[in-house]
């Protein structure tokens, strides 16, 4: 392997170490939550870069530790993504009555613009849909 490529890989390893230390400091100072997306992404980035350096240099205990770290980080990101997907509001189709359009022979759904509050969302949709 060329010296230039080894220099780049080593530099990336130092970047990974710095990213990991910054992430650890941010959590330790209470600026990031341990289960935050920023922390988990920083950890995954750090371990991936340090894995690269360890693998190129044949430091197998470090390779194994970084693989475990990557698996844990990837699993944490999946948990975060699943929680975000679950927390996202679900949209349900609403069947609206049709009225005559100003254009001859065309119909259009009745659309009302209302502020929908989470607690009353279902009641408001029934009013808009003409079900009440």
From TrEMBL:
Coiled coil: none annotated. Keywords: Membrane, Transmembrane, Transmembrane helix. InterPro entries: CBU_0592-like (IPR058058). It comes from the Bacteria. The keyword Membrane applies. Pfam families: CBU_0592. The chain crosses the membrane at residues 6-27, 66-83. Residues 10-83 form the CBU-0592-like domain. This is CBU-0592-like domain-containing protein. It comes from Isoptericola chiayiensis.
């Amino acid at each position: 392997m060329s010296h230039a490529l080894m220099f780049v890989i080593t530099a990336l390893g130092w970047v990974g170490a710095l990213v990991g230390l910054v992430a650890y400091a941010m959590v330790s100072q209470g600026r990031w939550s341990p289960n935050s997306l920023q922390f988990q992404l920083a950890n995954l980035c750090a371990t991936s870069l340090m894995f690269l350096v360890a693998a190129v240099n044949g430091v197998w205990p470090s390779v194994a530790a970084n693989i475990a770290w990557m698996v844990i980080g990837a699993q944490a990101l999946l948990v975060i993504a699943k929680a975000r997907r679950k927390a996202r509001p679900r949209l349900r189709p609403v069947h609206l009555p049709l009225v005559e359009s100003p254009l001859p022979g065309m119909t259009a759904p009745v659309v009302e613009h209302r502020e929908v509050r989470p607690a009353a969302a279902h009641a408001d949709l029934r009013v808009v849909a003409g079900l009440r």
